[in-house]
């Protein structure tokens, strides 16, 4: 079994993925900022290798990821965060925080590991189905994930001639500490172990785009393909229904 590296491994989907791969005996590099949670994962066995660093600091990324032995063949870049804008009142500091983690952190991670890339490697980037349609309060999160989606898909085009596969993950609502903070209905939410299983299966089958849960993400994709005027009408209805 080839080694795998996972960012955002101390919480949510990343943590579940790390546990699942560790239980299978696979060598797993687990990356995050929380030293205590990294050590909890490391206690699963010597094949779990903790790397503590801050993805928003490029130098920290490069130092932590410079020498990896054995070199991972699969790179799951999963770290991210979510904050919401209320009532359309712009908060530039909030936008910057979300983009710094979700977009700049992703770019830092890729720059930190790309010197390891070789033909046959698989880069897996976790986005969100929120990137498919404009949703209330998601000015920061949705826009950041739209950037992640575009970056991932474009990188897939550029790396394909080198024999490097790039997959983009589009989760719907997954029960994690991140969604536990939400104060609105989350239809068709799935458990984190289901999400991790969907990602593992998508990686194993070599899918370019990994969507789950299937029904919810299919609905959002259809709605996202509608003319913007219709999407705008639906979004306004969501706001009205909440009020």
Automatic annotation (TrEMBL):
One of its GO terms (molecular function) is oxidoreductase activity. Keywords: Oxidoreductase. One of its GO terms (cellular component) is membrane. Transmembrane segments: none annotated. InterPro entries: NAD(P)-bd_dom_sf, Sc_DH/Rdtase_CS, SDR_fam. Belongs to the short-chain dehydrogenases/reductases (SDR) family. This is Short-chain dehydrogenase. It comes from Vibrio breoganii.
